[in-house]
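Lab notebook, page 48
Experiment: co-folding of the full assembly
Goal: obtain a model of how the components sit together before planning crosslinking
Operator: M.T.
Materials (sequences as entered):
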Amino acid sequence: MKKNSKGKTIIEVKNLVKKYGDFTAVDGISFEVHDGEIFGLLGPNGAGKTTTLEIIETLRDETEGEVIVNGFSINKQPAEIKKIIGVQLQQAGFYPNLNLVQLIDLFAGLYGVDVDPDKLLAKVSLVDKKKSQVKDLSGGQKQRFSIATTLINNPKIIFLDEPTTGLDPQARRNLWELVKQIRDSGATIVMTTHYMEEAEYLCDRVGIMDQGKIIDIGTPSSLIDGLISRGFEKKKEVREATLEDVFIDLTGKELRD
Amino acid sequence: MKNIKAILAITKADLQGTFKNLSSVFFGILFPLIFILVFGLLGNDGVKLEVGVMSGSDTNNPIYKALDSIENIELKTDSTDKDLHEELSKGNIDAVINISTSKELPNYTVDLQTSAANPDGGSIVKSIIESITQQINTSALEAQNIKKISQVKTDVVEGRKYRQIDFILPGQLGFALLSSGVFGTSFLFVSLRETLVIKRFFATPINRTTIVIGEALSKVLFALLQATVIILIGHFAFNFTLVHGFSTFLEMLFLSAFGLMIFLGFGFIVSSVAKDQNSVPPLANIFTLPQFLLAGTFFPIDLFPKWLQPLSRILPLTYLNEAMRKVAFEGVSILALKEEMLALLVAMVVVYFLAIRLFKWE
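Observation: model returned without errors.
Model output:
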């Protein structure tokens, strides 16, 4: 993966609508994701983030609208799209009774590629767990392994659906660094989260979703500047540190897997 | 090419998972072997008759010698008369004899005692002794040139010894295939669906056919292993008959794979109808239990009441069991098993017609 194409549009979503019966989960959204960035879809539960992601991943049919991924249309060339994306699903499990190496071999076979499991596991610091089953991993280890499986086909775009939900602060920070490393190696990352500090730290640009609509889109700092320029003032006195800073200071940054 | 790689990756993963899962190995291979062991040790040689010989009995006469030469009759000569009577009255032995000889006619007199505790054994011994004495009388008459008034000509057809194992093993094998086919597949697919593994698979460049073929291939390979282990242990440890040896073994393997394909279809249907893993066992039992009881797994279906037999005749396992028994023991070739193979084919078409209609991926 090279960085030379950085900044180009790699995903284009136009007037996307998804209806389940009378319920409109995604209500005519449009946005672009640039090559090489970490793009965050933010929003409360039920905002339509996961549905949007799954439509782009070709796992769900759209009701209306158009999505182009790396020049391929989700309707006409879903197979081409699947080859160049890596997908982490929210709360997805793994094939039962297999250890990490066996699971990697399975995915390598599904993508038709050859992968060195040790090398891949080293990227997510799980080499010493290679003979373990996923059910015996900690929450953070599970998420790291799950991210490792998205890297198997050396994808251009990686989708992470709430990758840090349920993790302790140490594991969350560790995962942030992993996501940044993957972005720095040239991949584009599209992720959802409902943690704002995560989006602020990690995402190059974010789209804020609520009730199936994208309300605002931009870099975290431009969105914050916009809010301040509209005359917003924080009611509480701003302190130099947060409770999370205290927690990390007291318990250290090392992982507790 | 990539498709084949993907199919084999799924097959390999599923086999690795199956062997890691002890219950599939236990129920698929060990469980049927235990049944075979139990039934294999029970009454291997058909009818065995024990006849006590009283201490005063003459043993140097043609009747005694004839009895002694019959394979199924064991003559007990080492017990006291008192013990013999006690055993007889308990029904532990089938009869007690005392043969006396005399210079006058009749030369030999058999005192036969049987017991109300064991009427069947007694009457068999009685008819054997009667037929021996009759033969002796007839040959004596012929020696005096007196013609026979009537005669029975018996012609014993040469046959292989049909042991209990020859009935039990095909039934157990068929049932083992049924349970691993139905339970293995339905549990697996419901869990793959629930844990979004299938969804994750769909985010890779493979299609549904790849998943189904990969899984089916794994299940067929496991079934062939099941069949191989069960048949070989049955053959070498319990004398299970393979009439034409290796080619019969191969035909049994073919039938096993064919039967398993049908049962996989049942598994697909169960996995589609089941809402979650908890609802798999009751649904799967709707398919497996009637076949366990009524498909001639433990008893020949001819022994069932007449009104029940039509029910047996609609169960695929009935035909698989019959086909296996005919192939292994009678040496009938698969192509000659028209009724059984037709029934299995119809079952396969019906099952997959339903499975394709009902199958749920999400």
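Interpretation: Chain B touches chain A at residues 1-2, 5-6, 8-10, 12-14, 16-18, 20-21, 188, 191-192, 194-197, 199-206 (CB under 8 Å).
Next step: discuss with group before ordering constructs.
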